[in-house]
């Protein structure tokens, strides 16, 4: 806890830089990742991430320094080359895209590891630390590195902002974009370049092995929360920023730790959280709605039951005992009690001293509506779908709970405002 | 029967299109009149979509060219609108109905520009024309097939073009919607637009179209609907007599032959 407050106070200028840098890198990768994901090129992103390793190593061998500009250029070249290879293989041979991606990824990455090993055994004094590109090290993001990688991240964000409309169109409907006269090939080129650049800057914090996670996972998680592209990008950026922040923190607390795996763990937790918690598409939300539906159906069935009992005895507002209700319709006592209590708290029922239950006027109205919909639907099925009268009840049991007032009006109109249902019961 | 028109709005000259070296359209020579509602009819795999895509410059052609208003497509792009087959996009994309219709205005806006008020009005107006204004904020994955089709139509309307190419706008659409759409197309025609529609139902084709193109890998017929839709031509279009063309195409692909002897000429119109 103490370390956290110490970290958060940003009293150390170095901590400030590292944190700011990681947040920027991770957020910009996440933003670019949204388009990568929507273009269904997530796997290509992974291939690019692995393919930048040989570029980094080659740049180091050729230049003999760890100057970030050289490393960046090297990474960019092999990253791009991998995309080109994938496209070439898929368009010129019968090999499918997934196989081509696997092929390119392993060849490039294998070559990269080879070079890395050679460098490490080469005895070059400045080689130490090149392996941080494998699993990332946010803490090494200082000085010159920060400025270089940070500027690339800013360029990424600005480009996305400039081409937002075009990228959106391109991802949704490429052919249509073409017919509108947009330079589709050019835009695709830019978007691919952005993906490569995002990978190149992101590896500093996450490393090549796990880079795809920071590119794609925030976008995938954000998609759960919204149906708007703009909002999705924003949420992805926030998720990315948070994971970058955590990476910096991990680097601060445990300097020996590679940050990549930590960042990926955190992003993954956020993604799983989104999957569970997102209000519309999330798992909890769905469960909640299902529970609501079940309760609603039970409530309406009880009101309907009481209304029908009222019909039979000609008095809607006299009390009924549990036994009386259960005789008419089998509902387990526990569920029945729960429903009755809920309905009382909602003002649809009252409870008598004699432990009987009776409808309030509002309860009667609602029960009456359910009965009406049930009978209307039965009639509709027999008249319009020619289903036998003894087969329609089950179906109506369901439909009575979901018909909207508009549909009700439409059915009434089509049936010519009928008086009775197929079983000769009056439609209230 | 192939009727050529004098001052065609669309002129297709000796067009051959191949996928993977296998020609699917052979030597199409076609001229179409302006200010009319035109149907393209043919069996599955006849190359109807391919013809439209080739005219719109979406796929490379092996030989020949298409001209619109006697110009290259590039010069008149803003006046031509394309309504792709509904299945050609992923409807799970994070966008609203309104967002998609607004895309119809992107071409006029040009690079970097943001939509202005007038663009937004035009998009809403187009949505109203297809009766979808109530759905403006709906996520596009929550639409029925017919509604998706209408959204694509609205997008094309928002583009405010003079020529419209529509690939099966009536596929998966109920009869009420189909009637509404054809009514809309007729109004557009009466306002001087030219609409080319890929269509499947012969029965309604007679009613709908002023001009009909019959296609099955080659051009079988083109002319005023009443003259073209006759027994003989329909048999030619739908009959199985085209197996020779299919087999030759297959052969060209296997032998890796170019569809034309002189490929230099063929690339002329490629982009
Ligand atoms: N991308 C492609 N690659 C290879 N062959 C293709 C491709 N698209 C279409 N074809 C082939 O070209 C021929 C014409 O296809 P096209 O889609 O133009 O037919 P269509 O007339 O639109 O058919 P439908 O009524 O089914 O839409 C078909 O034989 C099809 O198999
Ligand atoms: Mg087609």
Textual characterization of the structure:
The complex is a heterodimer of chains A (428) and B (271). In chain A, 74% of the residues lie in helices and 1% in strands. Chain A is mainly α. Chain A has 2 domains: 16-278, ABC transporter involved in vitamin B12 uptake, BtuC; 287-415, Winged helix-like DNA-binding domain superfamily/Winged helix DNA-binding domain (Arc Repressor Mutant, subunit A, Orthogonal Bundle). The relative contact order of chain A is 0.10. The mean pLDDT of chain A is 87. Chain B is of the alpha/beta class and 271 residues long. Chain B has a domain at 10-88 and 161-262: Rossmann fold. The structure holds adenosine-5'-triphosphate and magnesium ion. Chain B: This is Metal ABC transporter ATP-binding protein.
Task: List strands and helices in order, with pairings.
The complex is a heterodimer of chains A (428) and B (271).
Chain A: H1 2-8, H2 13-38, H3 42-63, H4 68-92, H5 97-120, H6 132-135, H7 143-162, H8 164-172, H9 174-179, H10 184-206, H11 211-223, H12 229-253, H13 259-277, H14 283-313, H15 322-328, H16 333-345, E1 349-351, E2 357-359, H17 361-384, H18 393-399, H19 405-415
Antiparallel strand pairs in A: 1-2
Helix pairs in contact in A: 2-7, 2-10, 2-11, 2-12, 3-4, 3-5, 3-10, 3-11, 4-5, 4-10, 7-10, 10-11, 11-12, 11-13, 12-13, 14-16, 14-17, 17-18, 17-19
Chain B: E1 10-19, E2 22-32, E3 37-41, H1 48-55, E4 63-68, H2 73-76, E5 80-83, H3 97-102, H4 106-109, H5 117-129, H6 145-159, E6 163-166, H7 175-190, E7 194-199, H8 202-208, E8 211-216, E9 218-224, H9 225-228, H10 231-238, H11 243-254, H12 263-266
Parallel strand pairs in B: 3-7, 3-8, 5-6, 6-7
Antiparallel strand pairs in B: 1-2, 1-4, 8-9
Helix pairs in contact in B: 5-6
Magnesium ion (MG) is lined by residues 48-49, 85, 167 of chain B.
Describe the structure concisely.
By secondary structure, chain A is mostly helical.
